[in-house]
Amino acid sequence: MSTAQTARAAAALVLAAAALAGCGSEDGSGKAADARRGPSATPPARAVQDAYGRTVAAGTAKLAVSSKVVAEGQALTAHGSGVADLKRGASRIELTTQGTTVEQRVVDGVVYQKPSGGQRGAVPHGKTWLRIDLGRLARQGSAGQSRVSDPAEPVRYLKDAGAGQVTRVGAQTLDGTPTTHYRVTVPLSALTRGDAGQARELRRQLGRSSLPVDVWLDGRGRMRQESVRLTLHPLEGRTPGQGSSRVTSTTVLRFSGFGTDARITAPPAGDTADITDRMTKSGGTTATS
């Protein structure tokens, strides 16, 4: 894998981690209302199942994301911070990789990216923002869609974690906040929402039928951190010259400052360039990569 390909992989992973904050509330009531017991006093599977609702019920939060991709001896890191409206499924974050910063917003299932510096010329038609419709990518069955959404999708399925899929690792303090660390095994079939073809492709790339996800919950059962580690084995023939190159990645998302002010809006439609179809054809890479 070339440096450019490694950069594209990192961009996709960071995009996915930031999109995590845009998972939104599917059932904003229910278990989230019961915060009388902290996660350490709750059976592991129940604590993880409840975490989604309890986190969304907080309304808003500050977020920080970091990603590291290693391929053919080359390492690329990326990081960012911003805010999320957890109930609306919206986020605003500044992402930095290799000295380049991109402002990114996730609103109503659409990702908007505003490149800075020398990358601005990558936005078509003289526009300021790139527009990526994640829902449309999914409907088109894009191979790139799975890369965009892999690290984000497990959070949505924590609610369905079974007793045999969750292990309590132990207590840990994160940034001064006491938390409980859990390890969750998420079946690939859950990530692909029943799409057998995508499940098979992920299984071939990962060499396994499930994805390990680590989560840290605070005393009120809210998610404070999620970590996803992947080892991808690119499919032979999918990308010329890539062969059997292996890519390892670690993506970490942290929530803090629950209840913070988070006003997030989409950029003006006239100032955006939609590259969803281009991403479908190019395998899920952004125009700035």
From TrEMBL:
Residues 26-46, 263-289 are annotated as: Disordered. InterPro entries: LolA/LolB/LppX. This is Lipoprotein. SUPFAM superfamilies: Prokaryotic lipoproteins and lipoprotein localization factors (SSF89392). Residues 1-21 form the signal peptide. Keywords: Signal. Coiled coil: none annotated. The keyword Membrane does not apply. The keyword ATP-binding does not apply.
